[in-house]
Amino acid sequence: MRIVVLTGAGISAESGVRTFRAADGLWEEHRLEDVATPEAFDRQPSLVHRFYDARRAQLRTVVPNAAHEALARLEQRLGDDLLLVTQNIDDLHERAGSTRVLHMHGELNSALCRACRGRSRWDGPLGDFPPCPRCGVMELRPDVVWFGEIPYGMDRIEEAISEADLFVSIGTSGAVYPAAGFVQVARAYGARTLELNLEPSDGSGWFHEARHDRATTLVPAWVDEVVP
Ligand code: BJW
């Protein structure tokens, strides 16, 4: 069975990583227009760097949870028949043991040079405007996909969804496109679709089946069903 799993902020919530749209979410403290658009970075690069530098530093204080671990176990059994697409910029899937992870919205531990377009692994802060390790120009930005930018890996994602028997969406509000539309793409290609989320997402009605509870409860139980 070929499976495409899409994850969002909800899968990392129980590890202590804040989601975006909850009452205590990141967008409560920051207007997304101020920190998550290329225009915001042009206007106030220091503010945007502070936002991502703090999240990158916090990442070192959290660990994967049972939901990340269950998906790593699923990959061990399914191998190439599983593609894990994540909207998350944290590295908790990899630290749990997943290797086939596509970060469609980029990664916190990566920097993108606006001069040479090179991507470099980056664990420290960017707010002191360090030079690009590749070209030396001080034009590094967080390697994340902001509103109005094209997500990474769209061709590979569409190909995998077109071949999938099952599409599973975990811990995402379904508020941000194109990820929010993957369920409709999957259905158009004939896949069965399943939502695992704390509450019904914006697109919950598109799924053949929806289960609502915490990811650390739902995901291990679902993985046990698929690979007993
Ligand atoms: C739990 C839980 C627990 C909690 N267990 N569950 C009008 C209509 C349609 C589209 C558009 C439009 N105007 C503009 C657009 C496009 C725009 C868009 O979608 N805007 C919307 C606001 C409408 N999209 C874009 O601009 C994208 N690019 C694009 O479309 O390019 C064009 C193109 C595409 C494809 C091909 C060719 C061209 C880019 C979007 C970039 C999004 N970037 C961000 C920031 C990334 C860096 C960062 O992390 O800071 O990505 S925004 C933010 O939202 C982040 C997330 O990945 C993304 C999704 O959030 P997510 O993961 O769903 O989190 P939440 O907080 O919303 O939800 C968490 C869920 O978990 C909730 O449901 C909880 O209940 C649940 N939960 N605890 C289980 N314990």
Radius of gyration: 17 Å
Terminal CA distance: 14 Å
Percentage of residues in DSSP E strands: 15-25%
Structural class: alpha/beta
User: Can you tell me the residue ranges where pLDDT is under 50 for at least 5 consecutive residues?
Assistant: none
Question: How much helix is in the residues?
Answer: 25-40%
Summarize the main sheet.
6 strands, parallel
Average pLDDT, all residues: 97
Write out the distinct hetero groups bound to the structure: ligand BJW
How many β-strand runs? 9
Principal-axis shape equals globular
Summed up, the helix count is 10
What series of H and E elements makes up the topology?
EHHHHHHEHEEEEHEHEEH
Strand order of the largest sheet: 3-2-1-7-8-9
Q: Could you characterize the architecture of this molecule?
A:
By secondary structure, this protein is of the alpha/beta class. It has helices at residues 10-13, 26-29, 32-35, 38-43, 45-59, 66-78, 92-96, 154-163, 182-188, 215-226; strands at 3-7, 82-86, 101-103, 106-113, 119-121, 140-144, 166-170, 192-197, 209-212. Strand 7, helix 9 (182-188) and strand 8 form a beta-alpha-beta unit. The model has no long low-confidence stretch (mean pLDDT 97). Residues 8-10, 13-14, 19-22, 25, 36, 87, 89, 105, 144-151, 154, 171-173, 175-178, 197-199, 201, 214-215 line the site of ligand BJW.
Task: List its traits.
228 residues; single chain; alpha/beta; 6-stranded parallel β-sheet; 9 strands; binds ligand BJW; 10 helices
Kindly summarize this structure in a few lines.
With 228 residues, the chain is an alpha/beta fold. It has helices at residues 10-13, 26-29, 32-35, 38-43, 45-59, 66-78, 92-96, 154-163, 182-188, 215-226; strands at 3-7, 82-86, 101-103, 106-113, 119-121, 140-144, 166-170, 192-197, 209-212.
